[in-house]
Amino acid sequence: MDAFEAPAYPKVKALIPIRETGGLVFVSGHGPEDINTYEPLYRGRVGEGLSPEQGRQAAAECAKTLLRAVKERYGTLDCIQGLVRALVLVNCGAEFKDIGAVADGFSDLMAEVLEERGRHARTVMGTRNMPNHNIPVEVELIFRLAPGYEERGVRDV
Fold first, then answer.
1. Interior CA angle at 99 toward 139 and 85, to 5°?
2. CB-hemisphere CA count at 13 Å for 115?
3. Is 129 helix (H, G, I), strand (E, B) or coil?
4. What digits encode the pLDDT tens for the residues 81-111?
């Protein structure tokens, strides 16, 4: 298995990991997960138990997790014409302010892997309450499908 392959995500009745409509793909928030167990690779708050560098690494792992989900669905990352927008949530300690530097771990990895297609608009928010055993970072993603990958209407995956 390469870095962007993973077994299928378990189905949750009301939630879907990917929704595609009008040439855009909306990928649900993903944390920094082990590709085999879905267990968090990092837990805790940045600036309160985790260093900023660990937060940045967790954000990069979120990018890998999202890319694996896309590759699982489409069979290739060539389906990505370009990233549109990312929302990065950073679980941070009360005094931690440099959430943008943490989110750069995600953005930098996307630009490294996808080159120009990896450039994106981004919103970053700090929080003190995260799911999945208190993960430090979660990222959701919107990207435009490359020609030839478009579906008609809305498709849930």
1. 40
2. 3
3. coil
4. 999 999 999 999 999 999 999 999 999 999 9
Go through 125-139 and write b for each residue having 16 or more CB atoms within 10 A of its CB, e for each that does not: ebeeebeeeebbbbb
Distance CA 79, CA 76 (A): 6
Question: For the whole model, what pTM was predicted?
Answer: 0.87
Give per-residue pLDDT as tens, 45-88. 999 999 999 999 999 999 999 999 999 999 999 999 999 999 99
How do strand 49-50 and strand 45-46 relate by DSSP bridges?
Answer: parallel
CA angle 142, 47, 110 (to 5 degrees): 25
Three-state SS at 81: strand
The type of residue at 75 is: G
DSSP state of 29: E
Strands 24-30 and 137-145: antiparallel
User: Whole-angstrom Cα distance, residue 28 to residue 25?
Assistant: 10
